[in-house]
Amino acid sequence: MILGPTSGDLDDDAVAAAYPWPAEGPWVRAMMVTTLDGAAAGPDGTSDSISSSVDKAVFDAVRRFADAVVVGAGTIRAEGYGAMRAKPADVARRTAAGQAAAPVVVVVSGSLDLPWDSELFTASTERPIVVAGAGATAAARAAAAAHCDLVVAPDERVGPGFVVDTLVARGLRRIVCEGGPSLLERFVADGRLDEADITVSPAFAGLTERPGSARDVVRHFELAHVIHAEGFLMNRYLAPGSGR
């Protein structure tokens, strides 16, 4: 850590402690990696080619004691998400704190076109939740219900507020949003993001501008700490007034 409440080398437990969860109430944090030119993925279409082992160590640390990991359907397909499990050493701590044995993966999907035979749905410790838009067909809903806990939003486009309220009602208040960028933008636009943990990769990958992605209002976050390793900068930002 080169900026923040401490300095010097951090082991895995110290990294997890550098991303504390509040004692009560919902808390939504985003985890993203970006290149120097603002790309969220490399030429292979995934974040793997712009990430590193040190970035993934922070990524894993933030996930360790989360209740839910929210991700868009497009990111699930592009990144090839595997099963959501917790390290054996963390299971006892999680259950003692009243948490499920592992984080619950929560997929936001409009069409319900998802890889149902992937390990994400067949081998995760906790049954995945899928939040679908109201436009999903009855046939798609019936097929999805065999593989997940299906929740249908009242609108065709799933709103971040509906996602957060649904999870909190289930006792899942520690929420990590892993994107992609479009889903993250919606959380920011709706004011439902408390923390942004953004890794800056020391690379240029070619920024592809997405039409209509510019925001009407610029929302500023406050820098809380910076962790450096192998040229990567892992930055923690907090929404103003969050008190964390």
What does this structure look like?
- This protein has helices at residues 12-17, 53-63, 73-79, 88-96, 119-122, 138-145, 160-169, 181-189, and strands spanning 27-35, 68-72, 104-109, 129-132, 149-152, 174-177, 195-201, 222-229, 232-238.
- The chain is α/β, with parallel strands linked by helices and 244 residues long.
- The chain has a nine-stranded mixed sheet, sandwiched between helices.
- Helix 5 links the parallel strand 3 (104-109) and strand 4.
- The longest helix is centred in the N-terminal third of the chain and has 11 residues, at 53-63.
- It is globular.
- The two termini are 17 Å apart.
- Major sheet characteristics: 9 strands, mixed
| Low-pLDDT ranges | 211-215
So what's the overall shape?
globular
Number of strands: 9
Provide the residue-averaged pLDDT: 91
The N- to C-terminal Cα distance equals 17 Å
Q: Can you write the helix and strand succession as a string?
A: HEHEHHEHEHEHEHEEE
Portion in strands:
15-25%
Strand order of the largest sheet: 5-4-3-2-6-1-7-9-8
Summarize the amount of helix as a percent range.
25-40%
Please tally the helical runs, counting DSSP H or I stretches of 4 or more residues: 8
**Gyration radius, rounded:** 18 Å
